[in-house]
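hey all, quick one before standup. I had two proteins in the batch that finished overnight and I want to keep them in one place so we stop losing track of which output belongs to which input. First protein below, input sequence then structure tokens straight from the run.
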Amino acid sequence: MSEEVTYADLKFQDSSKIEHVQKFDQVGIKVHLTSKREMGKLKKLQNFKEELQKNVSLQLMYNMDLCKKIRNISTTLQELATKLCYELYRREPEHKCKPCPKEWMWHEDSCYKLFHNYDTWQNSGMTCSAHNASLLKIRNKSILEFIKSQKLYNYWLGLSPRKGYATYKNLDETLISSDWFTRNTSDLNDGKYCGFIGSIEYVYYASCTSPKHSVCEKLANPVKIESTLMDEELDGRI
């Protein structure tokens, strides 16, 4: 009788183990299936991320190309407005589209003003500074021809003062001169010589304390596209 009980107990215990193993296997299968589904979701997310990055890159490239086109159009409009304004300026020197202050002449990207009062080289430079400008420097042929057209006489230039007297120079020879980089501006009363336009063709030197006229230059403001085009449209010219 005791042996049968023992056998029954053993059988019951084995049955419990089998059931436990079966449950574990089922859990393992569920875990495997869940992991497989999660991996699928992860792969889809990865694909979505890659597609999104691709679209963002394409959009950035498109935006950069669009910005470049807009810059080119803006540059073209600015050039057209400047040319149009310059033609208007030639007809009417004080046209409101002019990018220079009143009574200043406009040439390319700079403004010029003649001061007819007599003063020393240093004081003339201070007069220019008071107008956010500097004494004229002739550094290219375009400016040279413009200045020649003004037929100036006895106007200080922004040449660096010299210690000793120098003979005259042809204006054309000064274009690449290092003398345009002004220096040695202290102690001008101590026998220094400064350059000035003595005729249409030549630069001369005289004592920096001598009284002469002055010509100042400064950068022109950008031509305002809207005002230039609107003025012409209202006038019925375009």
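OK second protein, same deal, sequence then tokens:
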Amino acid sequence: MAEHKNGINNKVTIGTLLVALGIIYGDIGTSPLYVLKAIVGEKPITETLVYGGISCVFWTITFLTTLKYIVLTLRADNRGEGGIFSLYALVKRYGQFLIFPTMIGAATMLADGMITPPISVSSAVEGITNFKGLENLPTVPIVIIILSVLFFFQRYGTHKVGGTFGPAMLIWFSMLSTLGLIQIIEHPQIFKALNPFYAYNFLANYPSGFLLLGGVFLATTGAEALYADLGHCGIKNIQITWAGVKTALLLNYMGQAAWIMNLGENATLNGRNPFYEIMPEWFLIFGIIIATFATIIASQAMISGSYTLISEAMSLNFWPRVAVNQPSEVKGQIYIPSINLLLWIGCVFMVLHFDDSTKMEAAYGLAITITMLVTTYLLSFYLRFILKWNKFFVYALVVFFASIEITFFLANVNKFSDGGYITLIIAACFIFIMYSVFYGRKIRNKLTKFVDIGKYVNILKDLSKDESIPKYATHLIFLTKANFRHQVEEKIIKSILAKKPKRADIYWFVHINHTEEPYTLSYDISELADDTIIKVNINIGFRIQPRTELYFKKIVKDLIANKELNFHIRPDGSTKYNNEPDFKFIVIEKFLSVENEFSLREGLLLNSYFFLKRLSLSDETYFGLDKSDIEVEFSPLLYHPVEEVILTREDTN
């Protein structure tokens, strides 16, 4: 059995290959629903247009999806996990400003993801209008109902129906291959389109050929999501299944192109979708059902991927803390209610705004080109500094991929006025949120003053033994951001000693360390004063939601069981009336002091940060603390105090 170093199963079996089919290829696998329709549109059919369009699709999938993502980017796994944040976590120490392009890449991926379910489901459902008498059937309500049901059931988890995804996508790709082959047999000359000359001729000689690359690009938009889903089934399963998936996609694209060529020179599609036109009439209803189910799977993959992306963003301090639920025991399956609602609103808005899939095609893909450029940039650091490839070879690869992606970006800029501006506006909002959170935390941490615990050891030991002070708790636990074992925040010492001193038998300082690996869960202990002052570091992977109180209780049990620190012979605060140990967590929250004086930029970002903080989860909820076992204290944040106050005293006589 092959197993990845992080414990994620990477073996290759029929079952794991089916899982890969069901999870990885939903987005890119449903592209045949709209790619050829987007390229050809209502333009007169010519060999230059059709052969050139198919040639561009083939080489785009080969260079971007196969070479860049399947061969190269999948190597950049963080303990088996993929995606832009995993890649950033691997390379961030090699570049000072990598954080900002990472935010942009993640935000544009989230924004463009909002149009993936609408365009996929709409393209499938619109097949109903191919039936006689249903040509004018409104499909928008059907699409909204399907999407709404899908988002509603997210809270229950997808593990029960997830097992059907693999077989369903196997049927889907088998259907794509079969339908394509039937048409290719009638027009085998379509294989000539694989010659790159046709792609060159299309771009050089066809009117507006460059702008039509926006439609070509739709064939590879799911490549970024493919990398993000790496952790679900491993690189080997993806690389093996991709050979079959790529074959099925290309056969279907060429089959559609063959059908279009058989319409004759200068004919037009006249609103028809070649994806459905290549189906026998008796099979149409089955084709629509299979396509609809495939697009639901594609939508599910996008939704799950968005949850994972936001969860990682929170762990890396790019996103406000929001509630994260685990609807099943399946590892890595999470549900984020606020993001689910946001995505549902975004998807319904897209459906209502664009009305049909043809208009969505005109807006789709602009934002994801930016994500791909960011991935190329981050990947260069991985190849150069981690794999230690020759820097000139890495630079050549970057120039090659970036040239293709910049070309697609410029072609997609034409979509801005057709609706691309919507995804860019949404992306800009996500970027602002991420930057405000990141900047606000950076300022807050910069102003946090740390002190050496050693200076306070004696006074804390004296306080612990001073029975003239009422005991506050047997175990008093503070959450600290101090990375060094001998340090804590000055505000924590003030909390213990100022006003009414907090006497406790043991003072605990617990530091939560988010690691760059996804599933780390470990701890270490430093005894700073015999049985009185203890520092605990809990190392948590960026894909794990903290449950600090649970971890703390487990640590104490381990210490007692191992007879360490004299815990097994010391009173823990339990009594004959209550056998639970007596402990209290103290959480100190910052608030923005009214005594600050800001520039416009500082005021906007810091006020936005604290506004988002009020809307997000509290520290006690995020870190997994029981409300009955905590006390919250507040400390003002002074960034730029007012330098001079002009206050005039008036004479009342």
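Flagging for whoever picks this up: Residues 284-315 form the longest helix (32 residues). The CA atoms of residues 323 and 336 lie 6 Å apart.
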